[in-house]
Amino acid sequence: MTIVKKINPQSPLGRLIQEKRDLRNQCQESETRIKESWQYIQSHAGQLLGAGVASVLIPGRKNNYANGDGAGFMNIPWVYFIWRITRPVVYRWMGEAGWRILKSMFRKKR
After folding, report:
1. Which of 5, 23, 97, 98 is surrounded by the most beta carbons within 10 Å?
2. pTM for the full model?
3. Taking the C-alpha atoms of 84, 86, 87 and 93 in order, what is their torsion angle to the nearest 10 degrees?
4. For the chain, what are the domain ranges?
């Protein structure tokens, strides 16, 4: 059995304990926001990648995300269909050949 001692919140120890509680709450809120952001990125990676590539290739293109119109090129049915078919191949290439190319960039030449 633990003895719970009531601490005066006006004392230095009470202020320190309250500050510790506040910091823990802030850390938990930050972790929750980061987790939600990471889940969003994971679930929308294709759309974000497509929008990034499209903005590089077509600089004058408007950002449809701001208008809430959707994912830009993904609204065109045939582009969406092609992306759905080629996505596994692209991911596979990125995992194999892309990784080899990336590693070779940082290796010393013999």
Report:
1. 98
2. 0.40
3. 170
4. 76-110
